[in-house]
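As a warm-up, study this chain.
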Amino acid sequence: MKKALVHDWFYTNAGGEKVVQSLTNVWTDFDYYTLIDTLTDKDRKDILKGAMSNTSFIQKLPTAKKNHRKFLQLFPLAIEGFDLSEYDVIISSSSAVAKGVLTNQNQLHICYCHSPMRYAWNLYFDYLKSKSLMRGVKGWYAKYVLYKIRQWDVVSSNRVDFFIANSNYIAQRIKKIYNREATVIYPPVDTDTFQLCVDKSDYFVAASRLVSYKKIELIVQAFNKLPNKKLIVIGEGPDKKKLQKIAKQNIKFEGKVSEEKMVILLQKAKALVFAADEDFGILPVEAQSCGTPVIAYKKGGLLETIIENKTGLFFNKQSELDIINAIKNFEEIKFSPQAIRENALRFSRQRFEREIKEFIEEKIKHFFGEKKIF
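Now compare it with the structure written out below.
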């Protein structure tokens, strides 16, 4: 059987790419399709086992490799431009448009959905406000583009035969937006790399892409009011200069770090502080895999991965005061690194690869009959 794997874009090695990496661990003979591909040689070797992907016309547009999202209005046209008619099975890994590839009734299309397009749906107003697009001609145009994207997004959801969601939280979002049921298979976490460490140092850590919806600014502002507590911020992004400007001396910015350094920083941290409304949240599980508790916003996929007062604790509002109070409460609780790691093992890469293999092979048997082998 011929198989295609469609991913929104390959430019980093984050949660979505870890799912693709596991899929290529299970099956080695995919052909790959994506809007743009700017992977480093190392990431290409890890994620795609060294293979090149088929890219869309967006790859050749000026500045696309630095800021592909500026061409949002072209994404549907680009993804529909891929001719996948020769493939029996299409697997899409989608948080934007990958699920919208054109297929026919003789093809099986299974979508692993990280989320329906966030900036068109649940982050719509946050996105417009962060880009100063609530008013004016540019604002009107952005709203119109996102309006058309939402229409296309719902229509293209009918091209998927089976949805897999990365959490119950996202399964509910898929039901709300697409009126489709989704099977939950939690994404893979590399618990073998993020090993247990019981010897903690006297610092907290926050890590993510430095963009507004990750709410790193709230964490920085909270630690500005806790001068005796050290915070290490990991990550790059458009908000970095702004955050560095407002941060006080107890806050250190590490920028983008290697996986090896990330492991060490998570292993030695007192806790990971996480303020985003996350779909699943691989990083908080990686921290728990190291035996490090998580102080997190009480919403989203983290409710499915953190056991309150055992592997971390929650705060109820995305506010400086709530984060400050949570940190103070955290200092009063004694956590067991071993118990925290045990919880993280529920989300291992091995578990994901077994579950995804069983799910996809079962659907293939029902769709094509027993004689077809994937």
